[in-house]
Design goal:
single chain, 145 residues, alpha+beta, 3-stranded antiparallel sheet, two-stranded antiparallel ribbon, 2 helices, 7 strands, globular, DUF2634 domain-containing protein
C-alpha cells in the first residue's frame, strides 16, 4: 500500500492481500454515509471499517470531493482540480469534456482502479451531478457525486 493514498491501515498488519496480479493489500476505509455526507459509527461511537469494493467506493467519493493541492494532509496526487474552471468561459460541452478528463485523471492514480468506464453528467437547475462507472480489482463500482 502506497503511503501517498489516504487509506486506512489494516489493524492486523499487511498480511491480508487481494487476489490480484499486483498483490495489493485489501483496501480498507472508514465507512461513509453518502446521503448525509459523514462517517458512519457503530453503537459504541467507533468508526465502522469497510473493505474491498466498498472501500474503493468511499475513496472515489472522497477523492472527487477533495480539491487537489488544498490540504497538506493529502499528497499532491490525491483529489481533483476543479478550481481552475471557476469563472472560465467555456461552452457546456467543453466544460463537461474537461471535467470528464480531470475525473479520470483523479481516479486513475488509485492502484485498485483498473479503468473508468463511463462518466455521465446530469444538470438540474444550477447543480451538476456526475455518475461514474469504474472497474476495480474487486469488480464494478458506481459512484454518484
Amino acid at each position: 500500500m502506497s503511503e501517498e493514498f489516504p487509506f486506512v491501515g489494516s489493524s492486523s498488519g499487511m498480511t491480508e492481500t487481494a487476489a490480484t496480479e499486483n498483490n495489493l493489500p485489501i483496501c480498507k476505509e472508514y465507512a461513509w454515509d453518502f446521503e448525509k455526507n459523514c462517517f458512519l459509527y457503530d453503537g459504541n461511537g467507533q468508526h465502522v471499517l469497510v473493505d474491498s469494493a466498498e472501500a474503493v467506493k468511499v475513496w472515489i467519493y472522497k477523492a472527487l470531493q477533495t480539491e487537489r493541492y488544498q490540504y497538506l494532509a493529502y499528497s499532491w496526487q490525491y483529489g481533483i482540480e476543479v478550481k481552475p474552471f471557476i469563472g472560465k468561459v467555456m461552452s457546456v460541452q467543453e466544460r463537461y469534456s474537461e471535467l470528464k478528463r480531470i475525473i479520470i485523471e483523479c481516479l486513475m492514480v488509485n492502484p485498485y482502479i483498473t479503468s473508468v468506464d463511463s462518466v455521465e453528467f446530469t444538470t438540474t437547475g444550477d447543480k451538476v451531478s456526475c455518475e461514474v462507472d469504474i472497474t476495480t480489482v474487486y469488480g464494478e463500482v458506481n459512484v454518484n457525486v
